[in-house]
Amino acid sequence: MSAIEIHDLKKSFRLYTDRGSSLKEKLLSKQRRHYETRTVLDGISLTAAPGEVIGLIGKNGSGKSTLLKLMSRILFPDSGSVTMHGRVSSLIELGAGFHPDMTGRENIFTNAAIFGLTHQEITERLDAIIAFSELEEFIDNPVRTYSSGMYMRLAFSVAIHVGADILLIDEILAVGDAAFQAKCFERLMEIKAEGVTIVIVSHSMAQLERICDRTIWLDSGRIRMDGAPNTVHPLYLEEMGKRQQLSTAAKPKTAQPEIPADSPAKWTRITLRNEQDEEITALRTGEPVILQMEYEADPKRAAEALIGLALYRADNALCYGTNTQRERLKPVTLREKGVIRCRFSAMQLVAGTYWFDVGLRRMDMFAYDYAAQAVRFTVYDPIDETGIARQPHEWEFL
Asked: Which CATH code for domain 265-380?
C-alpha cells in the first residue's frame, strides 16, 4: 500500500480585484466585486511509497505549498482525491497552531494534541521535545516573546516527536542558526531511516539531493518532471537560468570601454557549452565547460588581437580574469569569421549565479568589442559549500 495517493488533484482560488472589507462595503459594492479564477494545481497525480522521501521544487507560485496544504487537510481540493495512510505531521507555516500568550510548554501540549497525541503520550515525550528544541531556559515564557528561530525550534521539535508516519515540511529548515539547521537535518535523516514518508519543499538543491529519493518539479500547477534528484535538478536549474536570461536585461556595473561604431571586429555570438557541445545555462560544481566566442572581422583593417575574459558573481564580485597576452599566447590573427574557444577542465565554483564579460582588443589594448554579461549561468553545488571557489582537498582521519 502507498503512504500517499493523489489522483487528478485540482485547486483554484478566486483573486478579487475590488472587494470590500466590511459588511457595508460588500453590500454597496456588490456589483463591483470582480474576480478572476487562478488555477494553482491542475490535474496532479502521484504516489509515495512508505519510507520514501520526495522533494518538491519549482518557482514561486508553482503550487508546492498548496499541494502540501491539501495533503495536510488545511485546504480541500476542487476535484480529485488525496489519501494519506497513517498519522500526518506537518511543518508548513512557522508557529501555526501556537497561541502567542501561552507558554512554550502549554503550546507543546496544544500542538501535539492537534497531531493526535493523547495527554499521556505528550507527557512521556515532553522532556525529549524540550531538550531537542534547546529552549529549557525559555520554555515557560509566552511564545510571543520568542524569536522566529525559537518558534522554529519548538515547532520542529514537536513535529518530529509525534511519531508520524508521514512528515510534510515547507521550507521551514531555512529558519534558525546554522548549527540547529544541521541538527534538524541529521534528525530528518534518522527519521528517514526509521521508515517515515517525508515530503519536503525547499529551494536548496543540495539539501534535497542529500535526503530525497525523488524530486518532483512543479511548473504552473502541473508536474513537469518526476525522477531522481541528480537527473531533475540540473534540468530545472537550466530552465530557471534560461527564464532569468529572458526576463532580466543585462545591467553591467563595471566600466566598459568605448567601442567605435566602425570597429573592424565584433562578437556575433557567445555561448557556454558542455562536453557534448550543447549550449547550457546551468552546471554542477567541478564540471568541464567551454566558453565559445564567435566573431566577424575585416582582416584588412583588423590587426592582430588578444582575447580577454572576466568571470563575475551575481553580486558583481570579480572571481577570475585573464587574457591571451597575460598567458603569453600568440596574438590572434582575425579572419572574416571565426570561432574561439576557452575550455575549463573543471569549473570549481560553488553554488550561485555568474556571468562572463568577454573582450576583443588590439594588442595595444584598443577595444574592438566588449560583451558585458555575455553569458549568465547558474552553478549547482550538491555539497552546499560556501565562498566563491571549491578548493580540491582530501580528508584524513588518523
From this structure: 2.70.50.60
- How far apart, in whole angstroms, are the C-alpha atoms of residue 355 and residue 376? 4
Per-residue CA distances from 266 to 61, 261, 362, 374 (Å): 41, 10, 12, 13
Length reported for the chain: 398
Cα–Cα distance for residue pair 111/165, rounded to 1 Å: 17
Query: pTM of the prediction?
Result: 0.68
Q: What is the pLDDT of residue 267?
A: 96
Q: Which of 259, 339, 256 minimizes the C-alpha distance to 296? A: 339
Q: Residue 94 has what pLDDT?
A: 59
- Tell me the C-alpha distance between 103 and 34, whole Å: 43
For the record, the C-alpha cell of 218 comes out as 512543479
Written as nine digits, the cell of 373 is 554579461
- Eight-state DSSP code of residue 345: S
Number of alpha carbons in the 13 Å side-chain half-sphere of residue 299? 7
The position carrying cell 501556537 is 98
Confidence of residue 48 (pLDDT cuts 50, 70, 90): very high
For domain 4-243, give its CATH number from 2.40.10.10, 3.40.50.2000, 3.40.50.300, 3.30.565.10: 3.40.50.300
